[in-house]
Design goal:
- By secondary structure, the chain is of the alpha+beta class.
- It has four domains: about 80 residues, conserved putative lor/sdh protein from methanococcus maripaludis s2 fold (Beta Barrel); about 110 residues, Elongation Factor Tu (Ef-tu), domain 3, CATH 2.40.30; about 70 residues, RNA polymerase II/Efflux pump adaptor protein, barrel-sandwich hybrid domain (OB fold (Dihydrolipoamide Acetyltransferase, E2P), Beta Barrel), CATH 2.40.50; about 110 residues, Orthogonal Bundle (Helix Hairpins).
- The chain has five helices and 24 strands.
- Strands 1, 18, 19, 20, 23 and 24 form a six-stranded mixed β-sheet that branches. It has a six-stranded antiparallel barrel with strand order 3-12-15-14-13-16. Strands 2-17-22-21 form a four-stranded antiparallel β-sheet, with no helix packed on it.
């Protein structure tokens, strides 16, 4: 080290010490005033919300595919050649109720109908003949019975004369033969008259057989035409013009789009909870689904868009799906065909995959944010700003809120913020809507 650097160090060291002593003296003469806020509470800063009374309707969600409630399968009940097919009879077409869509050659069945009509007239004529015979036999029996009475009277007269010795024995025998002959005539007529009820029964049975044959012929003739029983959308078409069809062939399938249904699989636990909450509203026994006053919202999603419909619960399946532990809930939806618009008011169509939300109105009860519930505990803040750990009984959770059946009343301050190692009675600083 050079001599000049040694001299400079010896001069600067005393000057630095003097400067430090001067700063210390000045600081001791003007002390800084530090204010301590003794009223400021110690403890964590938490967000709180007021427990409130409101109606929180429970909702159960499931998914399923739509299908029509009413379907129609045109199955051929007669055989023959197709002689007419509606020009619009194609898959997806809409055709009005009562429209003739298919016809089978009716010639053979018209002939069968004519033969059946002739047979019926023949049997009716036979019944009329039997009725006339009965009248004839009854009149003949009256006449021959009167003759029998006369011959018997004459026999009595001859017997009296013969006893007096006036009439001969041969006259007596001759009269006796006449009586026997007349009795046989009366007996024959009576036998013929006795068979009339049997003849009537046979003729009436034959008439019934002929009437049944006629009705069958009329049905067969009617079966050659296929008319839509409702305003229908056509599905499968399995026939062509001039094609010969046999009995029991499926020719056309169609369905009514005005009423659709979806059977959605819903978690059994959630659905039972829904029913429990609804049933707690009344002590009446529910004999059908109308007593539950269910509501159903159906949603179909198409990419980023969606369409919603209102529906009603029509049926609950009798069993549970063991693989998914779900129950099938069937919902009916009306398609308003008159208001159809492919963009603003689309229709629900067959096999559409949709979401079904079933809910029911319940009474008002205390609700709090679900994030404020920790198992069966809820953290409250009392009037002294202290933490209270309250045991509660939950009814159910819906969306971002939980319904509390016991343990909390409306107006309680509920801690929403998670606390680390909470202790009952610890001081709490509350934060509501951005203000401490």
């Amino acid at each position: 080290m050079s001599l000049s650097k040694i001299l400079k160090t010896k001069i600067m060291l005393p000057l630095a010490c003097l400067a430090g002593i001067a700063i210390l003296i000045i600081s001791s003469q003007r002390p800084e005033q530090i204010t301590i806020d003794t009223d400021r509470k110690k403890g964590p800063l938490v967000n709180v919300e007021l427990a409130k009374v409101a109606r929180l309707d429970p909702v159960v969600t499931g998914f399923g595919r739509a299908k029509p409630v009413t379907t129609w399968d045109a199955i051929s009940e007669v055989s023959g050649r197709v002689i007419y097919q509606h020009p619009e009879l194609k898959n997806g077409a809409f055709i009005a109720k009562g429209t003739l869509v298919l016809k089978i050659d009716p010639v053979d069945y018209e002939l069968e109908l004519a033969q059946s009509q002739a047979d019926l007239q023949t049997q009716k004529m036979e019944a009329r003949r039997v009725a006339l015979n009965e009248q004839q036999y009854q009149r003949s029996l009256q006449i021959e019975s009167s003759r029998l009475a006369l011959t018997k009277k004459e026999l009595d007269r001859i017997e009296t004369l013969q006893k007096k010795g006036v009439a001969s024995k041969s006259n007596l025998e001759e009269q006796r033969n006449a009586v026997l002959s007349q009795e046989k005539v009366v007996w024959d007529l009576q036998m013929q008259l006795d068979t009339i009820p049997t003849d009537k029964a046979v003729s009436q049975a034959n008439i019934k057989v002929a009437q049944a044959s006629l009705a069958n012929a009329e049905r067969n003739l009617a079966r050659t035409e296929f008319r839509l029983p409702f305003n229908a959308r056509i599905g499968e078409v399995n026939t062509e013009l001039q094609q010969v069809v046999n009995q029991q062939e499926l020719l056309i399938s169609a369905h009514d789009m005005s009423l659709m249904e979806v059977t959605a699989n819903m978690p059994i636990a959630s659905f039972v909870s829904l029913i429990r909450e609804v049933k707690s509203e009344t002590r009446n026994q529910f004999r059908d689904l109308s007593g539950f006053n269910f509501r159903a919202d159906i949603t179909a999603r198409f990419g980023s868009g969606m369409t919603k419909w209102k529906g009603k619960v029509s049926n609950i399946r009798d069993g549970i799906d063991a693989s998914s532990n779900t129950i099938g809930v069937t919902v009916e939806i009306e398609n308003h065909l008159a208001d159809f618009d492919p963009i603003d008011s689309p229709l629900m169509v067959k096999d559409m995959y949709v979401q079904v939300d079933v809910s029911a109105p319940v009474k008002e009860q205390v609700i709090i944010p679900k994030q404020a519930v920790h198992g069966d505990k809820v953290y409250l803040v009392n009037e002294q700003g202290e933490l209270v750990i309250q045991t509660v009984e939950q009814a159910y959770t819906q969306g971002d809120y939980t319904a509390i059946s016991q343990g909390i009343k409306a107006g309680d301050l509920v801690v929403v913020t998670d606390l680390i190692a909470p202790v009952s009675g610890m001081p709490i600083r509350t934060f509501v809507q951005g203000q401490e």
